[in-house]
Design a protein that fits this description.
This is Helix-turn-helix domain-containing protein. The protein has 293 residues and is of the alpha+beta class. The chain is 41% helix and 11% strand.
Length: 293
């Protein structure tokens, strides 16, 4: 009786081309695994799509469920060979627009679409679009349950929710504005210059943060409206916008000169919302270490 197949590696011996025990995988092995996962995901998604949902006849000779590769390729306006290579996990170059068409044809849900672009290692060209609707139920209540000043901003920096602690800190804003927007408050409301310590420095940083958030959508009506308004009404905003500086909204020390409580210092913490990726939750936590003596 043969203990093992001829030519098979002995027990405990790494197969040819595999990393040695304990050694990390190479970059090519990681990329190969990622491409394979991408191909497997596309095949699974393709099998779920009924031909009728994309305007194709069901036919009578379909041996497998869902769409054929040829149909997906035709609907996405790419070659069958190219799409086959993608599903096979080959190293081919695919543009973001093609991934977007694939996501649309395959009817991917938001989480699935995010997973697709994550595996493809490119940015979704539709990221942040189509979110001009109210916050999901419960998010505003979450903000009110936070004891520290907190608020939610959309990509235009409109205030979608705030709590009473934030209302006190900003001395009645944003409730005194019909459509509160943090950028308009900072650059158009005289109260901001009195409240925000080192207003000039913060103003330059705010413009760079907003560019990082919204520059990719600058031609869309909601973002364009905010930009045009601020470029015309605020020379300071216009000056810093033309500098093309980009930074993340990282947080850090924030100081305010409150008309009643005097100097207040906070650490700003910012989170992206999983249910609304175009929005962020901002909290201002008391900075005990930096409290005035």
């Amino acid at each position: 009786m043969r203990d093992k197949e001829a030519g098979a590696p002995a027990a405990g011996t790494p197969a040819a081309g595999s990393p040695a025990a304990g050694s990390p995988p190479s970059a090519e092995q990681v990329n190969s695994a990622r491409r394979k996962a991408l191909g497997d995901f596309l095949r699974s998604a393709r099998a779920r799509v009924q031909p009728g949902t994309v305007g194709l006849p069901a036919g009578v000779r379909r041996r497998t469920p869902g769409l054929r590769r040829e149909e997906v390729a035709q609907l996405c306006d790419i070659s069958v060979t190219w799409y086959t290579w993608i599903e096979q996990g080959r190293d081919v170059s695919v543009s973001p627009s093609v991934w977007a068409r694939l996501a649309s044809v395959l009817g991917l849900a938001r989480a699935e679409r995010h997973y697709l672009f994550d595996l493809a290692e490119c940015t979704d060209p539709e990221h942040g679009r189509g979110h001009a609707h109210p916050l999901p139920t419960g998010l505003a209540a979450c903000v009110h349950s936070i004891s520290a000043p907190a608020y939610i901003l959309d990509r235009c920096w409109n205030v979608l929710a705030r709590n009473d602690a934030l209302l006190y800190l900003f001395d009645g804003w944003p409730d005194r504005d019909a459509s509160p927007n943090l950028l308009r408050y900072i650059f158009q409301d005289p109260a901001a210059r009195a409240l925000v310590v080192d207003w000039e420095q913060r103003a330059s940083r705010v413009v760079a943060e907003f560019r990082a958030d919204a520059a990719a959508h600058a031609d869309e009506p909601d973002v364009r409206g905010v930009l045009d308004d601020l470029l015309q009404s605020s020379a300071v905003f216009a000056h810093w916008w033309t500098r093309h500086t980009v930074v993340d909204r990282e947080g850090g020390l924030r100081e305010f000169l409150h008309p009643v409580s005097g100097v207040l210092r906070y650490q700003q913490i910012t989170f992206r919302l999983a249910t609304r990726p175009d929005c962020k939750l901002v909290m201002l936590l008391e900075n005990a270490d930096a409290a005035p003596s």
